[in-house]
Design a protein that fits this description.
The chain is mainly alpha-helical. It has 3 domains: 125 residues, no CATH class; 145 residues, no CATH class; 244 residues, no CATH class. The chain contains 27 helices and 5 strands. The protein has a 3-stranded mixed β-sheet with strand order 2-4-3, with helices on one face. The protein has a two-stranded antiparallel sheet with strand order 1-5.
């Protein structure tokens, strides 16, 4: 099968996914990856005058602060350098002039600032800090160490996820979901400003892509062909026919805060900026991708690059926050695939399903036997599942959200996190564009809401922690918890009398195990796209279209998908350890408090927190 003939819908799914997932960051510090800050400074920082003064001024203002103020002020400065400066804790104060600045220049300044902040952090005497401050110290140091080390490999990534695709995905996102990313109905002037800055952002990323090209780091040809097809579909020489203008007009139409004259003026401003900034920028991307298409190939894994092995080793540490090698993860995945498939097969046997059928056909039977929901019935179905979960979590939790989560129709299933102030519950968006198989709905609900992401994140937002502890997300922790929550729901009896729902849970766990095999297969063993699709289809029972999307994701985002299963297994391991050590003193509610009351952190630090809890409990 020709890869460039894949259904264009896969592209849309990939692009949408990256809007939601692009902010996830997980890191790991290991002996192999320890960085000497002095050496790093000499190696990575190219001396400049104007930029040096700007960073030095920031560092000067961070000196002599108490540790809690330092955490807040220094991390805010790092957030000001993020793609979305509105993540900052305070109003942004620009530290550089973006004109004539490349992405490499900006990254170089960021490296210097990170190294300086790490040096300042090390000046604090950790021994005199409170236990909570010591945890914050450890988490922050871990984060900075690995961010700095990662800069050594900055030109080995594909540079297409999340940065470029986050921008491209606006084309698809604004036409399909009511939560337009720029919230243009509330802040129309902000939207005009974003349109005006569109070309600057694109050209910065193009410069970075060209730097990658010099190192022969080019995304595979079939992904370029997908993106070109998509870009050509959404761009248009007439500004009034672009989704940027059409969606803006729709939002303004429903606005009650503006009169007709204001709306027309805003539309004219948008038209000018689309013609001046957006269309030329998109065309420049198309031109460059057309060039890349002539020089790239279809080799998928990062192993193909000169330092690909080192880069993938780093990414596995970054995402799983463990020292596990690609080979260890691959073998663990194979073992888990066998274990979970055996459990699934036992249930199929009990149901009297044919023994010689493929998983795909067997799970089609499950889907048909469990039934389907459509439209708003999907929303109501999820609401019922969540309500029952809320009523039955008391056996395992004494810390619970105060707010009631709302469920809304959308284009995919995901939990939209609440604001950092924790005043609202967030929203569970559910896919209502197609029919939903009832057998997969409970697991989706438990993963995304209770006892998964919604429970974990709403508790986290209420914690009295430095802001960075609420904003740095370690995927192995957060997705590990949500995947653990799926199993916990089964242990708590949420799937009682729902054999099809339990099969949905096991199929999802099987997916996470297969990810360990396929991700490492692609990036350390040279597996091809077709080879990976064949393995995943055979071993999960998922439809071909979903599998193709998954494999494309793993190719473009090496290592990230391994974090789910690794994190889940670590939490289960720590729970078993606490159970064995504490015996009758073990309390599942206390254990969950320990996991959830310290915020997101690398798994090695989480293990230390649990060990300290066990030791303290035994002394009582």
């Amino acid at each position: 099968m020709k890869k460039f003939n894949l259904n264009i819908k896969i592209i849309s799914i990939l692009l949408i996914f990256c809007v939601f997932a692009g902010g996830c960051k997980t890191i790991q510090k290991t002996e192999k990856l320890t960085v000497n800050p002095t050496e790093t400074t000499e190696e990575l920082i190219v001396q400049t005058t104007e930029e040096e003064t700007s960073v030095d001024e920031i560092v000067k203002n961070l000196q002599g602060l108490d540790i809690d103020t330092f955490f807040e002020k220094s991390f805010n400065q790092l957030m000001l350098r993020e793609t979305k400066s509105d993540r900052a804790i305070e109003p942004p104060v620009p530290i550089e002039n973006s004109e004539n600045k490349t992405a490499d220049d900006y990254l170089r300044d960021t490296r210097k600032l990170e190294i300086a902040i790490l040096d300042l952090l090390k000046e604090y005497d950790r021994a005199i800090l409170t236990p909570e401050q010591q945890i914050s110290f450890n988490v922050y140091k871990w984060y900075l160490d690995n961010e700095i080390y990662g800069h050594k490999l900055i030109h080995i990534d594909y540079q297409i996820i999340p940065d470029i695709i986050n921008i491209l995905s606006v084309f698809n996102y604004i036409n399909l979901d009511s939560d337009f990313i720029f919230m243009i109905s509330e802040n129309p002037k902000d939207y005009i400003e974003k349109l005006a800055n569109f070309d600057d952002r694109y050209y910065m990323h193009l410069n970075s892509l060209k730097s990658h090209e010099k190192n022969n780091i080019i995304i595979p040809k079939f992904i370029i062909q997908w993106l070109l097809h998509y870009l050509r579909c959404v761009t248009n020489d007439d500004a009034l026919l672009t989704p940027f203008y059409i969606e803006f007009k729709k939002k303004l139409y429903y606005s009650t805060k503006l009169d007709d004259v204001d709306k027309q003026n805003l539309l004219k401003e948008a038209e000018i900026e689309i013609n001046k900034s957006v269309i030329p920028a998109i065309q420049s991307v198309i031109d460059y991708f057309e060039y890349l298409e002539t020089i790239t190939n279809n080799y998928e894994g990062v192993f193909k690059s000169l330092k690909g092995e080192d880069y993938y080793k780093y990414l596995l540490c970054y995402h799983t926050t463990t020292n596990m090698t690609a080979e260890e993860i691959h073998k663990l995945g194979l073992q888990e695939v066998d274990r979970i498939q055996a459990e699934i097969q036992n249930i199929f046997n009990e149901l009297g399903y044919p023994k010689d059928e493929t998983l795909s056909k067997l799970f089609n039977l499950v889907a048909n036997n469990s039934g389907y929901l459509t439209g708003e019935d999907i929303v109501k179905g999820f609401e019922e599942i969540i309500k029952k979960a809320e009523e039955n979590i008391n056996i395992a939790f004494d810390k619970k959200p105060n707010n009631i989560i709302s469920v809304e129709g959308s284009i995919r299933d995901f939990y939209s996190i609440p604001a950092i102030n924790g005043e609202d519950a967030g929203v569970f968006k559910v896919d209502i564009k197609d029919a939903e198989s009832k057998y997969i709905m409970p697991t989706i609900a438990y993963h995304e809401t209770i006892p998964g992401h919604y429970l974990q994140l709403t508790i986290e937002q209420k914690l009295n922690l430095p802001p960075f502890r609420k904003m740095i997300n370690f995927t192995a922790y957060s997705e590990g918890w949500a995947t653990y929550a799926e199993r916990l729901a089964w242990e708590l009896g949420f799937y009682e009398n729902d054999v099809y729902g339990n099969l949905g849970r096991l199929q999802d766990e099987l997916l996470r195990a297969v990810r360990l095999v396929v991700d490492t297969g692609i990036h350390s063993k040279g597996w091809t796209f077709d080879q990976s699709v064949k393995y995943m289809t055979k071993n999960t029972g998922y439809p071909l279209e979903k599998v193709q999307y998954e494999i494309t994701r793993y190719i473009s985002w090496p290592g990230q998908a391994t974090a789910y299963k690794i994190g889940m297994m670590k939490i289960l391991e720590l729970r078993q350890k606490a159970t064995d050590k504490l015996g009758d003193k073990f309390d599942i509610k206390e254990f969950h408090n320990v996991i959830l009351s310290n915020g997101s952190m690398p798994l090695e630090l989480l293990e230390k927190v649990v060990n300290d809890y066990i030791e303290s409990k035994l002394k009582k």
